[in-house]
Each structure stands twice: as C-alpha cells, then as structure tokens.
Amino acid sequence: MVGVHDGDTLTLLVDRQQYKVRLDGIDAPELGQDYGTRAKQALSKAVFGKTLRIETHGQDKYGRTLGEVFDGAESINRRLVRDGMAWHYAKYSTSKELADAEKTARQNKTGPWADPAAVPPWEYRAKKKAPPAATGEHWLNTSSNVRHNSTCKHFKATKRGRLCGPDDGKPCGICGG
Prior knowledge:
Helix content is about 25%, strand content about 30%. The protein is of the alpha+beta class. Helix 2 (about 75-80) packs parallel to helix 3 (about 95-105).
C-alpha cells in the first residue's frame, strides 16, 4: 500500500512497482462532497497495514487499473458500498453483490442514505462541470463600452464599469454579453 487518494482510488505497491487502482463497480463521494472525507477514511482504514489481493478488470480511460480489492476473502469494494461509503456504480457494473450491498445500506440509512437528498458522485461531478447559470445581470466596461453577462470572467472585473441592461454597449466576444 502506498496511498489512498479518495474513497475509491488507491495506489498499491507490487514488486516495487506502483499501480493506481480505481475500485471497480463503485463510486465514492468526491472529497468536496458530503461524506467524501469519510469515504476516504473508510478506505484507508480498510487497507492500511494489510496484505491485499486484487482482481484486475482492465483499465479505465485515465489509465488506472480497475479492480476489486480483497482483504482475505472480503471484498473492500463491497464493504464500502454496504457501509454507505460508496454507491454501486450501476452505469459500469452489473454486480448483484454490489447492488444488494447498496440496497442494505439504503435500508439501514447508512452514510449518505440517512439524507433523502443525497447526491450521487456522478451527479455531483456533472454539476461541477456545468457552466455557471447566468443571473440576468450585465456589466458594462465603461472604458471599452463592452457588455459582459454574469458568467463571463470579465463580469465586475474591470476598474471602470457599472451594471447595465442587456442592450447597453456592445456584446463581449467571449460571453456574448
């Protein structure tokens, strides 16, 4: 074991070579998300100081080894889902064991399942990638007479400017003002 990156990614040392492993079939909360730090701590507790076995399942699009990690006969992947520290990643996995483990966690309201509004990690990531919503406000750079909308990096970022209407000045070439 070399390190735990988050709740579903770790680096293993095998014969003096490091392998970054993405736990297959699960998706843990992101570090900036509710339960993200707890998921990382749960994975750390499950693997540190132990001799582990891994069943590899190829690589993901980032070049990480996909695998199921075992402590003896117990699947760490399944334990994390059962303990409410990860979702069964049904988009990429048809595992009945992981689906059953998530069902148990949901029934027991374990981890994020205690919150009826818990957001799956894939939705959290998608929301972070989405462009910010426009507020309907516009900023006129009074020096250049260019109008920026609220999603633009230049919105309220000029020394000389003011809030304006959607038809004042000329539209920004980046945001369309």
